[in-house]
Structures are given as structure tokens and as C-alpha cells.
Amino acid sequence: MSAVDAGLARAGAGRPVSGRVSFAEWLRHSGTMIRRNLLSIKADPEELMDVTIFPLIMTVLFTYVFGGAMKGSVHGNYLEFLVPGILAQMLTFGTMYTGIKLSNDFSKGVIDRFRSLPIARSAVLNGHIVAALLRLLIAAVITTGSAVALGFRVHTSPLAFLAGIGVLMTLGFAISWVAVYIGSIAKTPQAVQGVGQLVLFPMMFASSIFAPTATMPGWLQAFVKINPLTTAADSARALMSGGPAFHAVWVTLLWSAGLTVLFAPLAVRAYKRRS
Amino acid sequence: MTQTRVAATSVDAAVSTRGLVKRFGDQVAVDAVDLEVPMGTVFGLLGPNGAGKTTIVRMLATLLTPDAGSASVGGFDVVRQAHSVRRVIGLTGQYASVDEALSGRENLYMIGRLLDMPARAARARADQLLETFGLADSAKKVAKNYSGGMRRRLDLAASLVGTPQVLFLDEPTTGLDPQRRNDLWDIVRELAWNGTTVLLTTQYMEEAEALARQIAVMDRGRIIASGSPEELKQQVSGRRLRVRPADATDLPVLQALMAEVLGTAQEEGTDQVSGPLAADEQLNLVLREIAAKEIALADVSTFTASLDEVFITLTGTGAGHDNDENGGDAGRNEGR
Questions:
Q1: Is B102 part of the contact surface with chain A (CB cutoff 8 Å)?
Q2: pTM of structure
Q3: For B42-63, what is each residue's pLDDT tens digit?
Q4: pLDDT at residue B322 above 60?
Q5: Are both B13-233+325-335 and B239-304 of the same fold?
Q6: How far apart are CA A31 and CA A261, in angstroms?
């Protein structure tokens, strides 16, 4: 068996056996994991549906169903109000998918395979987090492109638009750690989905994503105002359509930092502990 | 052959454990296990579901931390030098899997890259293994569309990308049809012949007997017997003599005659008699008596008990009839 022989030569070459992973190796291992997660989109295009088709349907539906009724209660036209909101909404199900995939890796035994390899321990999580951000970026491009076709226009500047995407991605990064945490502690991928929907649906609707908050009752407004999805949507709205952005951006970044500082260590610990 | 050993350390045991213990809650899954697997041999860890085989493999593969005792693989301690252990092992098991969303080729390429092979070498290695395992035609197919046998071969190929010195095979043929199983056996023999140390867990005596030079029989977390397949059989029942008369009506006479000489004898099936052979002289005695009674014979043979019988004698249970469905090694409740 030639395949076996070839390897013997490698073992015989006296490969240095060390207990450390160099920075170059860490980078390569993480890169390989990112590639792996992106390749799986090719095998499972439905994976992107959550963050492409779904927002698209929402955009079209909300624009034509609510757009008329909303006229007057939003500044400018509803599409311009809605699209930044939809971009913020993507952060929820787009990142929850990462938790589902991680949980799947655990239950299928893929994590065991990786753990028996001499690779950087963090590579698997790095791969999931970075792939989640790339998936969000792809989705943002598709959503913005389709929105432009429907009549959406950026009224600020390309730079401000990119800053808006940047703020959203920062929060996406933070929520990805929450997703990784849930993916590491949940017993099955279905449980991740269940928990995710339970938390995300209220957060998504009790926000400024789809409608202005002024007409909501006071108790709800109290929640809506601190909801990071509200501040993320408001940030994107201000940076894309104009208006004061400072406060919303600041609060969103604070949320991102807080969630990351809390959940990244929790997620890493839960990931390491699970056997 | 010899050059494979160069990369290893100077110890001659590829795998060695001392008083290895793993508990899950208050259940002892692995109870003070000592193992010694010589380099370049196939070692069979045999036992029913829940005996603790998989738990041992998971500790040796650095996936679980032992609660007590020590273990080394390729001369490296599985706890203190886990990273070095990972450089010399391959793992194929019920638990370690390939990525179902990737093609066979992408899976092997990915592992090559994770093992720090240059891209070109990783691609070449992937293609070579796909060829060896008869997966070249399905190289671009996503692994979740593979048949069970193909999946198993891809799993095995994935654990061989880095050409491990020590290969752990956790129940590698469970669920395979006989043809696929034999193919896999051939691959294991080939690997061992080329110098790879293989630690194999199995519920099937037949498999342990076909592949392993040394076998350890496990039950409820303990090693209850070990040795070569021949030694194990001798240990339990030794040799037996089996005689088939030309005429089945001679069976009762034959049975009485053999029982007299051998101490005991049983009719087997409808046409033969067998009894335990304590010494070679008994063979002559039996044949002389048969000749004296003028019984015509169709066949005379000696044999040792099958490993299945050995196993049942040792554990008091048949293998593979445990009701522990998920194969979880902590699954036994009845304490001893």
C-alpha cells in the first residue's frame, strides 16, 4: 500500500516533536477552519438562506404591506427606514446559525477528530466566528444590492455606509460569541435553535427594526430603548440615511464590548469543558 | 520497517497504561487498567458494550483526562504532553468523524493542512489515500452522501493522513457487511505490516482473533484476561477431540467410550462426539478403543475452543448482548 509507505518516510524524517503551536501554525489552522466553514455553504446553500432570502422576503413584504400605512410615521420613505433595520435583523439568525453548526460538530464527532489533532485549540472557534462574520458580510452585500433594486438609496456617503456595516459587524461578532456559548452547552443542534428563537424573536420585534418606537407603550419602550438591536438599527439608519448617529453607535459598541467580554471567556470555557 | 521507529522514542511500548482510572459520577468506567502494547503490533481490546473500551481509547487519544493512574503513547504522557501525543496518533472511531458537509477530498486535504503539510503535499496525500481506499470516483462527492462503507473508509483515511505511529480503531467494523469488513481487515494488516501500532477495540472475538497478536478482555472497566488468542483459549478450555463415526447409530457407543477415557464427552449435532483432551496420550487411547470396538470412522480432529466460548466463560455473558444501547461506557449499573 503505497499510501502507507509514503507516510513512513515522513515519520522517519525525524519531525521535531514539540508541544507548542507557533503563530504561523495558529494562523494556518484558523484559516483552514474558516475555509472549512465557508465550503460547507457550498454543500448546503440553505445555510445562507436565513441571511439572504429571509431578509429579502421581509424587506419586500414589509415594504409593500406596511409601507403605505407607515407613511407619515417614519421620516422619509419606509424602505429607507426598513433596510438598515433588516441589516440589523440579520445579526440574529445569521449568528445563531453558528451555534447550531458548532453543536452539530459536537454531536457528529467532528470536534473529537479535531481535538485528536496537534492543532491550536482555539482554531475551531476562530473558524466559526470568522466564518459567521464573512457570512454576514455576504448577506449584507446581497441584501443591500436587492434593496437598491427596490429603490433604496444611501443618502450619506459611501464611507458612512461602510461605517454602518462596521458597527453591525461589531455587534455580530459579539452575538457570535453568545451563539458559540449556547452551541457549546446545548445538547443538540435543535436545542440551540429552540433557545435561539425563544430569545431572538422578542428581541427582533421589540426593537426599532421594523417600526418607529414612539407609539409603543412606555414599559415596552423601556426595553426597546436598551435593546442592542434597536441601537444597531438606529446606528445603521443614521449612518446610511442621515441623522444623529453618535449616541446609538456608542451604545451599540458598548453592548458589543460587554457581550464579548462576558461571553467569549464563557464560550471558550464551555467549549473546553465539553467532552 | 525499521525507519518507522526512528521518529519514536526509545521506549519499546507504543502504548502503556498504569492503574488507569476514569469515573463518570459515581460509576467507575475504567478501573485500574494496566496495558502494554508493543510497537508495530495489533492489540485487541475486547469486551461487550459498556466495558470501558471506548473510554480507554478516548483517554489515550487525549480526549478525556484520566482520574488516576498514568498513560503514555509513543513515549509521551497523555496529560502532560498531550500535544506531542496528538502528533503521533490517528483516531478512527464511533465518535471521531469527518465533516459531512465537505467532499471526501476536501476532508482529507483539510486534515493535511491542519497537520502543517504544504498545500500541494496535502492535495497529493488526499488523492493518494482516496485512491488507496477506493474512493477516487467519489472524491468530489459530499461525505453525507457516502454509503456506510465509504464513510468508514473515509474515516480511516482521515486518521491516516498524518501517517500515525499509533492508530486507534474504535469498533471499526461495527455495521459493515462481511465483504467490507474483510477489506478493512486487510487494510489493518497492511498497516501493521508496515510498522504502525494498532490498538483496536471490538465486540467481536472473530475480529480480535483475525487481527490481533495480543488481546485484553475487558468487562465492567477491568481487564479480566489477556494474552495471545491461543493462550486465551488454552487458559479456558484447552484442546478438544472431535470424532465423527461413519454410521450415526454408533454415536451412543462412541460417546460412552470417549467419556470413559476423557472423563466426559458430549454428542455434537447429530453425527459427532467431542470431549476435552488433557494429554496427547489420550488420543491414542481413544483410537485404540475405537479400533477394538470396530467402529468405522468418517473423521477425527482436535480443536481449541472458539474465542466466543472463552469470552462467555470469562465474562459470564455473551458479547454484544448488552442492553446498553448507546455504547456509552458508563452505562453499567449493576455493581460488583
A1: yes
A2: 0.78
A3: 999 998 888 999 999 999 999 9
A4: no
A5: no
A6: 24
Q: Do B101 and A20 touch (CB under 8 A)?
A: no
Q: Quick one: which H or E segment has residue B42? A: strand B42-46
Put simply, the answer to whether A110 touches B129 (Cβ < 8 Å) is no
Secondary-structure percent of chain B, ordered helix, strand, coil, rounded to 5: 40, 25, 35
What are the domain boundaries of chain B?
A: 13-233+325-335, 239-304
Q: Band the pLDDT of B324: cuts 50, 70, 90.
A: very low
ipTM summary value: 0.83
CA B264 to chain centre: 33
H or E element at residue A144: helix A123-150
User: Cα separation of A108 and A85, whole Å?
Assistant: 36
Cβ <8 Å between B113 and A9: no
Give the count of beta carbons closer than 10 Å to the beta carbon of residue B36.
15
**Residue B152 near chain A (CB below 8 Å):** no
B7–A39 CB contact, under 8 Å: no
Closest residue to B110, CB basis, from A1, A12, A36:
A36
Distance CA A191, CA A106 (A): 13
Of A13, A15, A43, the CB nearest to B101: A43
Put simply, whether B61 touches A (Cβ < 8 Å) is yes
Question: What is the distance between the alpha carbons of residues B77 and B63, in angstroms, rounded to a whole number?
Answer: 13
Single-letter amino acid, residue A173 = F
B239-304 classified as CATH 3.40.47.10:
no
Domain boundaries B13-233+325-335, corresponding CATH code: 3.40.50.300
